Amino acid sequence: MQRRWRIGFLAASLIASVLYVPASLTAQAAANPPASASPQKSSAPTEPSDASMGGNVTDSGAAPNPIHVPAGAPSAAGSSSNDANSALNGPSAPVDNRVVRVLVIGSSVARGWKDPKGGGYLHRTFAALSTLTPITYDVIDKAEPGKGVLSIRDTYVGWLETYRPQLVCIAWGGLDDLYQHTPMSVYDEQVRWQIQEALAHHALVMLVTTPVSKASYTSYRASQQALMESEIQVADSFHSPNVYVFNLFDQMKAYLRAHHESVQPLMHDSWHPNARGHALAAELLVKDMLAKFPVTAPVFKAEPSASQGHAQSDKPSGNAAS
């Protein structure tokens, strides 16, 4: 009976979230956010041709990924005046604070493009979870339209150290990287590094495959499917209690098949869902998170030091991107 009540309550809350969106869903950035974090419009075409993951990366730079600073190391300013705030808001903050800081990385769909009132499927998801649970999910949205996995190599570690999230949501759409001919090996290496750095900063990780688009069935039917499956394998390879995978891409496909529905009514254009598409993606993701993720007590679990050493040994050098 409790399960039925919860499902009914969930459905009602999700409908309410579609109709009555909070005025502000995105958390305000810190007073001095990274300069490169401002969003830019995507330059990718609406109807791209199919792209191979075996091509060369353009404008990627050959610099290696930055390495995280150990927790005990002094900050750049050499100041320890904010230790009290760190104890309250840092990655080890107690759950009874009732606030979980979420860092979102991804591109335009993760940012919520074409869903101006709802804020996108991720903001809808965390708004619903904030209603359904005692926890408030405070979203710091660093998803940037038109960008791929290589775009945050110089800023990601800084975000982790500046915002100290308890949860990192990795939600790349894949289409920008396919369009930019990012090799699959480079894509996987970057996703692996992003997970490693989040874990090194004692943040939980949720890898979310992207909602489907028209391109998922046409221009990039095979390549996007392969990319999503590959990043899931990367996340699963950690065998970590702090890494969670939510395969929204296949769940949406299964939903449309089961209900004999076309993807077209859910689309704003070939690459981006409309408000209805974002709402469906949020509904599916919320249900999956309630089933698999500790939404009422999201706490980082200590792991054996051997696993951390394995993660460090797998850190990509960046040469593959040259």
Task: Quickly name the level 1 CATH class.
Answer: Alpha Beta
Q: Please give the largest β-sheet.
A: 5 strands, parallel
Q: Considering the protein shown, what is the CATH homologous superfamily?
A: SGNH hydrolase
Q: How many DSSP E strands?
A: 5
Mean pLDDT: 76
Instruction: Determine the strand fraction and express it as a percent band.
Output: 5-15%
The helix/strand class is alpha/beta
What is the helix tally? Answer: 11
The value of Rg in angstroms is: 19 Å
| Corresponding CATH architecture | 3-Layer(aba) Sandwich
Q: Predict the CATH topology.
A: Rossmann fold
Ends distance: 57 Å
Please indicate the count of domains: 1
Strand order of the largest sheet: 2-1-3-4-5
Unreliable spans are 14-63, 68-96, 306-322
Residue share in helix: 25-40%
SSE pattern, N- to C-terminal: HHEHHEHEHHEHEHHH
Shape: globular
Give an overview in words.
Residues 1-29 form the signal peptide. Residues 32-45, 70-87 have a biased composition (Low complexity). Keywords: Signal. With 322 residues, this protein is α/β, with parallel strands linked by helices. It has one domain: SGNH hydrolase (Rossmann fold, 3-Layer(aba) Sandwich). The protein is built from eleven helices and five strands. The protein has a five-stranded parallel sheet, with helices on both faces. Helix 1 packs across helix 4, helix 1 (2-19) packs antiparallel against helix 10 (275-292) and helix 4 (121-132) packs across helix 10. The longest helix is centred in the N-terminal third of the chain and has 18 residues, at 2-19. It is globular. Residues 14-63, 68-96 and 306-322 have low confidence and may be disordered.
